[in-house]
Amino acid sequence: MEFYRIWAIILRHLLITFRAVHRTIDILYWPLLNIVLWGCNSLWHEQNESPLITFMLLTALLFWQILFRANMEVCASLLEELKSNNFCNIFSTPITLGEWMVAVIFIGFLKSIFTFIFGTTCIWLLYSLNILSIGWSLIPFVALITICGWSVGYLTASCIITWGQQVEGLMWVIVWAFVPLSGIFFPVSILPSWLQAIAYCLPQPYLFEGIRSLISTGFMPTALLLKGLILSLLYFMISLYFFKNLFEKSKDVGLARLDRYE
Amino acid sequence: MVEKKNSVLSVDGLTKIFSQRKWYNNSQKTFVAVNNISFKLYEGEILGFLGPNGAGKTTTIQMLLSLMTPSSGIIQYFNKNFFTHRSEILQQISFASAYTKLPGKLTIYENLDIYGRLYGLSAKERALRIEEYLTLFGMWEVRHKYTGPLSAGQMTRIMLAKAFLAEPKIVLLDEPTASLDPDVAEDVKNFIVKQQRERNISVLFTSHNMAEVEQICDRVLILKDGIIIADNKPQEIASSISKTRVVLMIEGHNFTLAQEFIHQRNWRFEIKDNCIEIQIDEHDIASLLVGLAKMDIEYSHISIEKPTLEDYFLHILKKTK
Predict the structure, then answer these.
(1) pLDDT value, residue B321
(2) What percentage of chain A exceeds 90 in pLDDT?
(3) Measured between CA atoms, how close is B203 to chain A, in angstroms?
(4) Beta-sheet strands, E only, within chain B
(5) Do the chains contact at A251 and B119, CB–CB below 8 Å?
């Protein structure tokens, strides 16, 4: 074993770590996120003695997976084309950006439905809890949470279409950044008031609180659902507009650079 | 040379300027990649698009496919503005490049089937044409293989099958023979020429292989620093920088006679040992040989070297340096 060879490899990795911003951020981002997330979750547990807490947590976890899957499908569909050097081939055919976006949304929808069915079955088999017992009222929440996932997905895809494959890590970073603000694993009321103000600008807290309310009261929380609906659709439209514009902007420099076809 | 018919592609004043603004001092750096180029591609023509690295070929191809927005200029296909009729026009255009690939976890057949669908081919058309092209390229037997592990030669053939599948009117080929073995490159060239002849397809063809361009292109555009510096038949472009070299090996007193004859015609010549090297226009070769025959001048060896596109290319590269 020679020290100079070991040092050469250490140096190679250190140089990259401090040169690529996303690698440095990774070192700080994930521990901070987990501390905030599970710290707040523990605080909620200390304050809440509801017998339904496991059911609420697992339902929220399932809905978070739906959101995550919808987001991932948008980003993964884009990255899939870029990594296989097929992006220029696709967009040199008659397909329009709108058609591509609809196709990606549809595949995201299918996978979200599959995630829901699979997750519900797992929770039933492993914990003997039947999420479907909540009833048909779940459907609008599934739909709106999926739309939230697409919004985050198109926001991230806008970054990828601008900066290329080097920012693919944002596919996980951005969606997780919304988790502490979404009230998934704890109610937003646990957060400091200034963070609550930010959180309530997003649709997710209304939807996740709506699900918790639905479980605990058995009644459809119409006001929360309505706020969630308006904000979900608003953010969805904004994210589509954002992606479309950045796609056109990316064409100023050429889509081929994203494919590494040059 | 094909007879010039209708133009299927017309490019007018196409320009691409890249600019980069530095956020910290607001200064702007600009680079003109394509500088006000204009050209036409005619029906049934194979047009070579050549230039050194960084000349602006790929940038132009990207603009011709709407993968890049031009800074200014007009692109018209079939007399329709490309920017306002993009989808309708791309229905009749296809593209293949040695530098793009197809999803590796799909089989050859699945990939081609998806492209057939993107061009709106019916199930019957897709099945028939995929079989036709894969059989033509000798790849029908391996149609259920994933495209990921294919060799460069196999991938090029699949890309060509993809490009011709929808029976387009125009095909843009960006270095389709790059990194191919000579036999495969020959097959590809033959295929392109056959498609052009049988289906009257127009082809815009970029390549670094000058011999190949001379062989298959009806006309050549040479791009340098974003400007078209030549637009002509390959042989005309080549002979624009040097004449044909005729070397004659002549023995005895005939040598002096030949020298006098060539001198009288005002042709440039050089004497090397017992050889005369004459630089003349290609159309003067016949009168040189007839003249020598009339004077009973015998030669024991003759070699004729025509200028090639490669000579032209090297010449412009030297000028750049």
Answers:
(1) 58
(2) 69
(3) 15
(4) 7-21, 28-42, 46-50, 72-77, 80-81, 93-97, 170-174, 202-206, 219-224, 227-232, 244-249, 268-272, 275-280, 301-305
(5) no
Instruction: Report the 10 Å Cβ neighbour count for A195.
Output: 15
Nearest-angstrom CA–CA distance, B95 and A159: 27
The answer to whether the beta carbons of residues A233 and A60 sit under 8 Å apart is no
Q: Of B249, B266, B226, B227, nearest to B303 (Cα)?
A: B249
User: What is the structure's pLDDT at B183?
Assistant: 82
H helical segments located in B8-107:
57-64, 86-90
Output the average pLDDT for chain B. 88
| Nearest-CA distance B233 → chain A (Å) | 27
A68-78 pLDDT, tens digit per residue, is: 999 999 999 99
Residues paired with residue A121 on neighbouring β-strands, in sequence order: none
Cβ neighbours of A245 in B, within 8 Å: none
| Rounded alpha-carbon distances, angstroms, from residue A163 to A16, A250, A253, A257, A260 | 18, 9, 11, 10, 12
Q: Which domains does chain B have, with CATH numbers?
A: 7-232 (3.40.50.300), 244-320 (3.30.70.790)
> Which among B69, B100, B119 is the nearest to A93, CB-wise?
B119
The token pair at A228 is 């969630």
A28 with A17: CB under 8 angstroms?
Answer: no
Indicate if ipTM > 0.95: no
Q: Across the strands, what pairs with B30?
A: B19
* Closest CA–CA distance from residue B116 to any residue of chain A (Å): 10
The token pair that represents B217 in the structure block: 């292109």
Separation CA B247–CA B275 (nearest Å):
6
Name the least confident of B126-135, B176-185, B209-218, B267-276.
B176-185
For residue A225, what are its two tokens? Answer: 């659902």
Burial class (CB in 10 A: 0-12, 13-18, 19+), A162: middle
User: What is the pLDDT, as a whole number, of residue A260?
Assistant: 61
φ and ψ at B177, to 5 degrees?
-105, 10
Q: Nearest chain A Cα to B82, which residue?
A: A94
**What is the per-residue pLDDT across B254-285, written as a single tens digit (0 to 9) for each?**
888 888 888 888 888 888 877 888 888 878 88
Task: Indicate the residue of B65, B100, B120 with minimum beta-carbon distance to A259.
Answer: B100
Give the separation between CA A145 and CA A228, rounded to whole angstroms: 9
Cα-based angle A133, A137, A143 (whole degrees, multiple of 5): 115
Distance between CA A119 and CA B314 in Å, rounded?
66
